[in-house]
Structures are given as structure tokens and as C-alpha cells.
């Protein structure tokens, strides 16, 4: 794929991935053929900032985990009222990283 297109993708979507994953994302995009560019452009990623806001407002009910696709953890938080509040507070610090990891997982599943 054209390096200019890859750079454009990286500039506009870097916030959706962990910084240590950016090199792997760039390398994978550079190795793709041009026919996959439309697939890459249509990929949608979850915003880590939105996940944090949802976690602050509805984290005790597991809504943040349902949002990023962690259904099992969402059910666990829902049934335990956010681990009696402890799990909710811990997730305030972890949910942005978990969202970025899920984005990377979705990227890999789509293109590999």
C-alpha cells in the first residue's frame, strides 16, 4: 500500500491504539495490497475517551465493558455492582488501555 495513505491513516487513527502497537499497524498496512484500502477505510474503532466517560458514569453496571465488547466482564461487573465499587474504580484507570487493546484485536482479526 502507498506510504502516503498509510501515514494518513496513522495520523488520523493513532489515538485508537497503544503506542507500542503503532509500528506493527504501520508495517501491516504497508504490506497490504491496494485492493484492501477500502476495507481499511471502513474499519471503525472505539474511542478510548468515550469509554472513560462511560466508565465514569455507568461503570458500576458494566456498561463500559459491554461497550468495548468484553461481555463476560460486563456481566461480572453488573452482577457484583462493579465489584462493590472497587472494580469500578480500578476500571477508571484501565478502561482506556483495554479499549485500545480491543481495537488492536479487531484490527488484527479484520486484516489477518
Give the gist of this structure.
The chain has eight helices and no strands.
Descriptive overview:
The chain is mainly alpha-helical and 112 residues long. It has one domain (3-111). It has eight helices and no strands. The longest helix has 26 residues, at 86-111. It is elongated, with a radius of gyration of 16 Å. The mean pLDDT is 93.
What are its keywords?
8 helices; mainly alpha; 112 residues; 74% helix; elongated; 0% strand
Low-confidence stretches: none
According to DSSP, the number of beta strands is 0
Strand content: under 5%
What is the subunit organization of this protein?
single chain
Structural class: mainly alpha
Q: Helical stretch count?
A: 8
Topology of helices and strands:
Elements: H1 3-13, H2 22-31, H3 37-42, H4 48-58, H5 63-68, H6 71-79, H7 81-84, H8 86-111
